[in-house]
Amino acid sequence: MLPSLSVPSGKVAAARPGIIEGTANNTVNPTHVYSVKEIYKTVQGEGWHTGRSAVFLRFAGCNLWSGREKDRADAICSFCDTDFLGTDGPGGGKFRSAADLAAQVRRVWEGALPPGANDCAQHAAFEGPFSVNAQVEQAAKPYVVCTGGEPLLQLDDALVAALHGEGFDVGVETNGTKAAPGELDWICVSPKAGAPVVLTRGHELKLVYHQKEALPNMFAHMDFEHFFLQPMDGPDRERFTEEARAWCARNPPWKLSLQTHKILGVP
Ligand code: SF4
Hints:
Layout: E1 34-43, E2 53-59, E3 93-95, H1 98-111, H2 120-124, H3 134-139, E4 143-147, H4 157-165, E5 169-174, E6 186-189, E7 201-209, E8 223-231, H5 237-250, E9 254-256, H6 260-264
Parallel strand pairs: 2-4, 4-5, 5-6, 6-7, 7-8, 8-9
Antiparallel strand pairs: 1-2, 1-3
Helix pairs in contact: 1-4
Iron/sulfur cluster (SF4) binds next to loops.
């Protein structure tokens, strides 16, 4: 496990109609029900962990958009490319305990692998002629990416502990407007224009480019190990890709992140 980070709490983004609201201190899920859009196995397509096998645990709901097209024009975040509305996706539903949800994540991880191919950690621990360093060992562990919607509206200490108990490294991809539980193995913050970032420390800051009011220099001072620019999908993707590439070339340590899962046509 990577060192855990203590992260600040802060103000909650402004409410919008139809949006699931969270609490400023989101270490507690008051209803003890987790609303999950879908759970599926794939490879991480973006950022530092690109290419790593992972289960994606997509929570329902976001604090920056209702998820309904009729609200998009008035939403704080208007370029979302994800369906996080409801609990009707593959593996989704309402889970009444952290243990139930973690067990479902484990089933998805195991179900997507051929029999006998699951125990990657044993391969990593093989005492052959090659030494296995810590990074290789980490990459061989089962990995779950908690995403959404906005996962920090629901992800709490109990669920992180339950996922650890099932053997997972636990990552989160968040818009950074909410405080995070402790003991996360990977924190990726993707700031959105007009939504103040309170989660200013983590492993990876991944900025979707271009957002007029969220430019790279506004985040470069924050305490992250890696900084990525990721071209916004849509009609201007080619232009944004070239501009992001040029920015990264001139401004290390920024690196270019491409949505390789879209290039591959996988979820
Ligand atoms: S913050 Fe993320 S999940 Fe929420 S609307 Fe924006 S892109 Fe979509």
